[in-house]
Structures are given as C-alpha cells and as structure tokens.
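Example 9 (inverse folding). The structure is encoded as follows.
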C-alpha cells in the first residue's frame, strides 16, 4: 500500500563526515519518507570532548548544514534538533571533571543550541539524563541539566526531546517542564515504548510498540534513531523503517493513527505543518 501523505521520522542522526549522510536521506525518500527531524550526533563522535560551550558549535553547524542538504532531496523537508547528549556527563567525569562542573559545561552547550532556535535555524532542543546506572551526584547533575533545557524551551516556546531511562511513566519530568513554563506535550520522550505517561512518546518503530500506540489513540510520533555509523550499518533502525511501518499500519487499518503520528502530533508538539511543507511551503 502506498502512502499519499506526510511520513516523518522524528529522531535520527546524519553523519556527513564518517557516515552515509544525505545518501541515507535519499534511501528514506525512495521508500516514501517525506520529513525528518535530525538530531545532532553526540559531540564526542564528531570531535574532541568539549571544554567550553562554544566547542559544541562545530557539531551544531555540521547538523544544520546536512539538514539543509537533506531538505533538498525530500518531498517535504528536514529540521534540526540541537542539544547535548546526556551521556556526555559520564565522559566528562571520566575525564576528570566533577559532576557539577560537567553539568555547567552541558548547560553552556544547551545555551549555544538555543541560539540556533532563536535564529530559526533549529526547531527544538535535545537533553535528558543517562539511561544507565550512575552515581547520585551524576544523576543530580543530569537532572539539573534537563531542568535547564526545559527553561530554555519555555523561553522559546520550543519542544525539548529527551533521552532518558526506559520507562512508561515520566510524569515527574513532565511536571518539571510544566513548572518551568513548558506544556508537557512539548516534551518528547525519544526511544519510547507504545505507552507513556507524561511527555509525548516518540515511539521506536517496532510493530508491537506501534500497535500499542495506535490502539491508545493518544498523540505519538515515530522514529528510528538511525545513528549513521559506518561501523554499525542500519543501527539502531535503518532509514527505510518508518515508511515501511507506515505502510504496515495502513494495511492494518490504522489510518487515524498514521495521521495522528505524522500530521497532528508534529503540529501540536513542534508547530510544523507537514502537509503544507509536503505541498511546497518550506516554512514551518
């Protein structure tokens, strides 16, 4: 079954230096994909460990540039999501910084990412906390960084994508976002399962997760978390996955869920019009 509407992958990475870059976007487009949210790769994968906030700029610039090229091959368009991967805190601590100093640097990186949102060069921010066991001090520092991301998102009325531990209940984080002035629906849980309390789930495009999300009838997005790593081709999921899963959902009769994930939720969460941009309007 062919799709005739927008098909959005809400979270993937492109590495034009070491990986496939725009070639992966071309594969996505050939499979029926129309829109992408491209998240910058972790800073340590495209350069040395940062020492100052400005050290994040090369990674952000690389992402903005490859997104512009990606939009040139899509029937719709791509948008950058910029921020600081929460796993950076562990690398900084291992490098000799105390957790508080690591958090200060990560907040500075988010401040730089927010400048791109201010200029209309990025759509949303990315933050979160480690999904693996860490010390209490690192956990506290990571939560402080996440709260800072929420404050930045509230000031700019932009969404914040989160990388967190696996959970179907993140109401605590949604409450923090609301306290900072954000609407909880503007908080997006990357790598989500089919059910989630609190933020908007960006569901990994496995059939069982998508079926649960479709049956719930609540706002959700679809993603692959494609990492564009030549040492791990196709990881986490390949760029053709979302278009293929959209066709599967339509075959199973989940037409309303497809529209919810690719038209209504992107509009409510990010303020983007995937239908208008598919018809040639490159504005939001």
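The amino acid assigned to each position is listed next.
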């Amino acid at each position: 079954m062919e799709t005739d509407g927008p098909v959005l992958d809400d979270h993937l990475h492109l590495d034009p230096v070491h990986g496939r870059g725009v070639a992966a976007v071309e594969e996505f487009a050939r499979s029926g994909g129309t829109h992408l949210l491209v998240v910058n790769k972790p800073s340590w994968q495209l350069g040395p460990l940062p020492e100052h906030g400005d050290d994040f700029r090369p990674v952000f610039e690389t992402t903005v540039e490859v997104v512009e090229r990606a939009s040139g091959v899509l029937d719709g368009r791509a948008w950058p999501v910029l921020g600081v991967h929460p796993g950076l805190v562990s690398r900084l601590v291992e490098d000799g910084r105390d957790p508080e100093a690591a958090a200060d640097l990560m907040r500075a990186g988010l401040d730089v990412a927010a400048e791109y949102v201010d200029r209309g060069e990025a759509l949303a921010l990315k933050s979160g906390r480690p999904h693996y066991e860490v010390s209490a001090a690192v956990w506290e520092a990571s939560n402080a960084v996440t709260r800072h991301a929420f404050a930045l998102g509230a000031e700019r009325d932009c969404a914040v994508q989160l990388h967190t531990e696996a959970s179907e209940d993140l109401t605590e984080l949604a409450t923090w976002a609301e306290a900072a002035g954000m609407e909880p629906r503007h908080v997006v849980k990357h790598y989500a399962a089919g059910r989630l309390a609190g933020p908007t789930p960006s569901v990994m495009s496995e059939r069982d997760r998508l079926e649960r999300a479709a049956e719930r009838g609540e706002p959700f997005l679809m993603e692959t978390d494609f990492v564009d790593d030549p040492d791990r081709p196709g990881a986490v999921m390949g760029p053709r996955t979302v278009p293929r899963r959209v066709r599967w959902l339509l075959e199973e009769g989940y037409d309303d869920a497809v529209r919810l994930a690719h038209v209504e939720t992107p509009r409510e969460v990010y303020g983007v019009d995937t239908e208008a941009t598919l018809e040639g309007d490159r504005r939001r």
